[in-house]
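User: Could you check the structure of this?
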Amino acid sequence: MALENLTAETFNDKVMSNEIAILDFWAPWCGPCRQFAPIFEKVAGEYPDILFGKINTEEEQELAGYFQIRSIPTVAIMREGIVVFMQPGMLPEEGLHDLIKQVKALDMDQVREEIKKQQEADAQAND
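Assistant: Sure, the predicted structure tokens are below.
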């Protein structure tokens, strides 16, 4: 997979057709975003099986709002359509590689079970 600019129109198709998607929320005026971009692009070239998506928060305010982006850059990682990691701030190259290893090692059945338990607990708390 390559580095792709994602929009509200392309987001669902691209993310859902890839097991793992790493998202970089950024803006053109953001200094740290410009510093992180070469790291993101370099790592993207090393993982052809992963979607690396860049989301310009100025142009894609709907997506930024959906993900509740409050600070940029923010990196979000989705596996099987589920957000499994989200953190504002720049990541070093080694940190991004480490996260990818951790995300690939996740037991997604266990993740889904934990989400289900949390949703049930939230529903009971709201009753």
